[in-house]
Amino acid sequence: MNSIGLSSDSNVAHALLRAVSRLFATPLLPALFPLLLAAQPILRVPVRLVVAPTSVTDHAGNFVNGLSAADFQLFDNDVPQQVHEDGDFLPISLGIAIQTNLKGPSIQRVRELGPLLGALVVGVGGEAAIFSFTDKLDVRQDFTPDLGRLTHALRRIEFSPGPNHVIDAALDAIHLLDRRPEVRRRILLLLSEPRDQGSASTLDDALADVTMSNTLIYWLNVGRGMSARGMSAEDAAPAMTRFTGGQQYSLPNGRALESAITQIGEEIHGQYLLSYTPATNETGFHRIRVVAKRARVEVRSRPGYWSIAQEFVPQLSNH
After folding, report:
1. In the predicted model, is pLDDT for residue 13 greater than 70?
2. 194 within 8 A of 235, measured Cβ to Cβ
3. Which position among 78, 80, 301, 308 has the lowest Cβ density within 10 Å, counted as fewest Cβ atoms?
4. How far apart, in Å, are the Cα atoms of 214 and each of 174, 255, 286?
5. List of domains in the chain
6. What does the alpha-carbon distance between residue 40 and residue 35 come to, in Å, rounded to a whole number?
7. Can you tell me the distance from the alpha carbon of 110 to that of 220, in angstroms, rounded to the nearest whole number?
8. Are strands 127-133 and 92-99 parallel, antiparallel or unpaired?
9. What are the pLDDT digits (tens) for 67-92?
C-alpha cells in the first residue's frame, strides 16, 4: 500500500492554481458561478482542445444512441463552436477511491464491488486502480487491466478510523489519473459520504482543479440516511461531481450498488465525446452549454472549464 507522491512541478502548478481560486473564495457555492465567470486570474495555462463527455436520454431515462456531431450545438461562453464527435474507441482509466471509516455493512458492500467492475472496465486497454482514504489517499492497487487483482484488492479493504478528507482524496486521485496517457478516458468513482471533515484543500481549491481536468467523477453516496434533499449545495462530493458533468447515486442497499454500477457503465459507454478548440482565447472560466437538435431529449455535459494564458507555462519549468 503506497501513499501518493506528486512531482515538484505538479505541486507548484496546483498550489498556484489553488492560490488563484482563493482570490475568488466564497462561502456559498451558488455564488461561485458568477464569480468564476467574472474572474480574471493572473496565473494561467493554455487550453487547446476541450473534451465534453455528453449524455443524451429520452423522457424515460434511456440513453439515446446513434447521434453524430451534426446533431449537437455547443456553446462556449454563448459562442457557438465547431464540434467534433470522437467515435473511436478510447480505453478507460478508472480510479476507485473508497472512504474506509465507514461502518461494517458499507465496507462489506465495497468488498463485493469487484465482479461489477466489468460494467466499467471493458474493452481493449481498459484499466482500473483501487484507492482508499480517510485523512490521506493510499494506493491499494495501481492501475491494472486484471479484474482479479482489483477484486482481490477490494476484498482486503478494512475499516480504518480517521476523519473524512474527501476533498484532498479526490484531488490526489485526479492527479494520479492525470498521469495516465492522453489517449485514455479518465474516470473517478468516489465512494464516500458527502461532507468533508478537515481537508487541507478547500472546496474552491477542488473546483478550480477539477475544471482543469478531463476527469469525469461519479459519486456513490454511502452516507447513512443522507438523501439528496438532506445535502447542502456546499457538500464536497456532490459539488465536485456536478462540476465534471458526472452523476451521483445513493446506496441504501446492496441492490442499489449493483444498479448504480450498471447505470454508470451504460452511461460511460453511451456518451458522446464532443471536442472542440475554443474559437476565442478568453481567459477565465468558460461556461459550456450543449443542445441536442433532436426534440424531447435531455442533455447533460460538463458545465465548463478554466482557460489560462500561454505565458504562464515557462514559469512552471523554473521551479
Report:
1. no
2. yes
3. 78
4. 9, 30, 14
5. 2-87+274-317 (no CATH), 92-270 (3.40.50.410)
6. 10
7. 11
8. parallel
9. 999 999 999 999 999 999 876 678 89
